[in-house]
Each structure stands twice: as C-alpha cells, then as structure tokens.
Amino acid sequence: MSAHRFTAISTGLSMALLGALTSALAASAPPETSTCLACHGANGEGMAAAGYPRLAGLSSLYLTEQLNAYIDGRRVNAIMSGIANPLSAQQIQSIADYFSALPASSAPSPSALDAAQSSLGRQLAERGDWDNGIPACFNCHASGGIGVQPAFPPIAGQPAAYIEAQIKAWKTGTRQGSPQNLANALMYSVAMRMDETQTKAVAAWLAAQPLPAPDTRPAHTKP
Amino acid sequence: MNASSIAQLSVNAGLLLPLCMLLTSTALHAATETPALSAATGTGVSFHPPGEHMIPEGKFGDMIRMGRDIMLDTPKHAAPFVGNTLSCANCHLDAGRMAGSSPLWAAYVSYPAYRAKNDKINTYQQRLQGCFRFSMNGSAPPLGDPVLVALEAYSFWLATGLPVGKEAAGRGYPDIDKPAQSPDFKRGQTVYAARCALCHGADGAGQKAAGRVVFPPLWGENAFNWGAGMASFNNAAAFIYANMPYGMSYSLTPQEAWDVAYFMDAQERPQDPRWLGSVAATRTKFHDTPYSLYGQTIQGRILGNSGAPKRPPNESEAHIAP
C-alpha cells in the first residue's frame, strides 16, 4: 500500500471519527451529563427499545422545566424523580444547555404498527378527533411533529412507550397540568380526552415518523 | 362524554366543572379546570356532517377533496387569490366542520341572502369571494373559478341532509354575553400575554416551524385586513370565547374574551381594500360601527393610517415569506 493511499484512508477515517465525535464534544459535555447518557444515549438520542426519551433538541426552557417538575413532584417517575432530585439549579442549567444544543436524531424509532393503528394514529396527528375535543397534534407540535420551540416539544420519533406513558401520566396525575401554566394546561386538556385505543395508535404512529432537522438549527459546516 | 351531552346542560362553567369531575375518574385533578370539549359545546347542535371517509370516488369526490384541501392550506391550494399566510380553517376550525366555529354546512344552506356589507343579494360563491378579499387579504376568484366551485362542492357535501333556508343550530360563532365593563386595551393586553402569546407570539405575528405556519398571525402584514369580519371586535370576541386558547374552548370569561378581542383589533393590519383615499372617508363609509376600531385613536395612534392598500399580490408574491 502506497503512502499516498494510506494517507487518504487515514484522513477519511479521522474525518469520520471527527464527524461522530463533534456533536458529542463540540459543546464539551458537562460532567453532570455523564450519568444520563447511559439511558438517554451518547448523543441524547434516547433509547427506543427501553422507552427512554430523546433529549437532544428539546429546548433549554422545556428541559429545565421538566427537571424541576421531577424535583418538586409535579412529575413523578420511578427512575427520573430520584435522578433529578440531587441536581442543583446550576447543574440543571448546564444539562439543559447541553442537550438543547445537540441535533436531534432523525431516524424513526422502531415500532410495531398495524394498518388500523397507522390510519387512526395519522388521523389524530394530522386532523385530531374534534367530536371528542381532540385537536390535531400537529396543529400545536407542527407539521411532522417537529415541535415549535421553546414550548412545544418535538414528538416525532420519540419511543412509542414513552409517548403512551406521558398521555397516561397526565390522566393519572403523575404528570400534572397546572392551570396557571398554559403549556401544562394545554397538553393536559388534550390528554384527558384521549382513550386507550387512540393513545396506543397515535404513540405508535408518531414513533415511526422520522424527525426532520428543523431549519432553525445552524447548518452543519463541513471541515 | 360527548359534546352533545354537555350541550344539553349548559356552558355555564359552574355547572360544567363539577360535572367533569364526576365523569372523569381523575379526582386527583380537582384543582385543574377541565375546559369544554370544543366550540360546539352549548350550541345545541344536533347535525353531524358526514365523515371524510364518505367522500365519494370520482370527479365530484375529487372536487370535494379539493375544497377540503383549500380550507386546510389555502396559501398552497388557492395561491393566486391569497395575500397572507392564513388558511380558512384557522377561523373555521376542523376544515369548516366545527359547530360554533362558523361551519360551512350551516353557511351553505343560508344563501343566497341579503348582505348589508355590499347591499346586495349574495350567492354562496359571492360570499366566498369576500373571504378571499378580506380575511385572506387577497383577491376574489372569478365566479365559477375551480377554487370557488371546489369550496362550494365541499360545503354542499358537508350539508348533506340539512334543510335549506332554515337557520341551523351551530351557525356562526355563538353569542357571547355583553361584557360587564366596556372592553379595555390594557386588560386585553394582560389576557393576551397570559393566554395567547405562547402560541401567537408577543408581537402577534404567529409562529412558524421549518418555514410553515403553525400558529397563525393575528395582526401585522400577514394577518386578515381591516375589512375582515374578524376585525370587528364583537365577531372576534365571539370567535375567541368559543375557540381560544386552542383546545380550551370557553375557558376565558366573557369579559376576558371581549378585552383580548379589543386588544387584538386595536393593532395594525393591512389596509381595507375598499380604501377611499383617507382613513376618515373609509371609516365613515365602511366602519361606522362601535365594533370597528378602524380610524379610531388608540394608544396615541390612528388605526388604519397606513396609506393606500398594497397592490393585490400575484401568484409568485403570495408565497413570499415575511
């Protein structure tokens, strides 16, 4: 193998490595995120198989609000409440800044989706079920479920189990809707109107959708 | 629990609240208000338009579907006639199906009719032309244009089984109680900041994601113009009370709805296309009602004082982003 060819390969390799590492290292992961990555993925992409949500690309405001909600009990979860509890306000801020700056993965989560679920799920996402007071998910979470920052989180490609668990959490009170907080109250009203079949269908359908990169994200400049 | 079972009772929040708590198993949420299901609640509506899966196949069905698509994304499907970033369904919810949100089926059976706005007997297509000129700040499609035919076909199909010439329950926006205090800009501003700005933006310009409108603009260059029905704050109050905040119908008090409607309609928006050369002349001829703030001085500004209307946009201009 000629020296010339070796250089070409190694350059190619280091470029690929660089590419993989930039997203994780560019914003230099703060130490408090190290424990999170085991469940939420090295790039905050989540872990579909376990139902752990994607954190990458959630707004800093939303992330801060959710971690505080776990701490003060407005949001209760066997795993996350304990993890959030010891975090200081400053740690929460750097965690939120870090994950909000990571680009969200665009690969759809694997999900078992039959034809009936698919059409019901899509109908709910795009048109809602107004007979039961349910507006189209995409009329608030944007077409394609890409979210409207900062208050409306992206929901496309989140794990089906996670989406389903959240709707249930609102209904059972482990994720509270505070009437004073408009964002809380809005999603709470929607969740309360959804039945079991609808919840499962829309969760499965949304999970199967790719998350296209929002235009607001700065274009990735080539080295 | 469905809309009609609540409708039989009352929209009175005092009645609704305990009812919802009884019927939902989540007494945990006693502290959280459960808003009415939709604008239809309390309108006494019994008519149900056919489900969309019942749209027939063939050419007529295609025309109905085109009408539905125009309602949902007007700038895309009726581009030459649209001068802002709104869609019909932003004000006629659920693609014009929703009772209490000026549904198309109730409108369809009510024309031809006399309208004071132009002092003429208006056909349904003529009524639709007005929507493009004012609400969409665009230009009227010629009578018989496929855009109007499609909207007419869709409305006709939605009204399947509804008697003509009889006022249908659920038409228009439901009457709202007169406010106890006269509507006020400052109070409206407070309501706006707390219950609307999250979606429509502090500047009323709405919000987009990936270049597409999610939350439509309420004022400014991409909103409905001064000639639109929504620019009269009595219409706006009725719409808002029944439909906003989105998904939380009838959750404002009537006073809050009037105040925020007044605040919204006291902002600048595109000129009335019937412009007569001056704000004063245009006000006298077209806005001589206490519900139009056009030509009034509010917060030290004369509203509508933005000069002659901009030329109606052509096809390519209709898509220019702000």
Measured between the Cα atoms of the first and last residue of chain B, the distance is 43 Å
CATH structural fold name of the domain at 185-302 in chain B: Cytochrome Bc1 Complex, Chain D, domain 2
Order of helices and strands of chain B: HHHHHHEEHHHHEEHHHEE
Residue fraction in strands of chain A: under 5%
Total strands of chain B: 6
Structural class of chain B: mainly alpha
Number of domains of chain A: 2
Largest sheet of chain B: 2 strands, antiparallel
Radius of gyration of chain B: 20 Å
Provide a descriptive summary of the structure in words.
By secondary structure, chain A is mainly α. Chain A folds into 2 domains: about 5-105, Cytochrome c-like domain (Cytochrome Bc1 Complex, Chain D, domain 2); about 115-205, Cytochrome c-like domain (Cytochrome Bc1 Complex, Chain D, domain 2). Chain A has helices at about 5-25, 35-40, 60-70, 80-85, 90-100, 115-125, 140, 160-170, 180-190, 195-205. The model of chain A is unreliable at about 1-25 and about 215-223 (pLDDT under 50). Chain B is mainly alpha-helical and about 325 residues long. Among the domains of chain B are: about 1-35; about 185-300, Cytochrome c-like domain (Cytochrome Bc1 Complex, Chain D, domain 2), CATH 1.10.760.10. Chain B has 13 helices and 6 strands. Chain B has a two-stranded antiparallel ribbon with strand order 1-2. In chain B, strands 3-4 form a two-stranded antiparallel ribbon. In chain B, strands 5-6 form a two-stranded antiparallel ribbon. In chain B, a hairpin with a 4-residue loop joins β1 (about 115) and β2. The termini of chain B are far apart. Mean pLDDT of chain B is about 90; it is low at about 1-30 and about 315-320. The interface between A and B is large, with 38 and 36 residues.
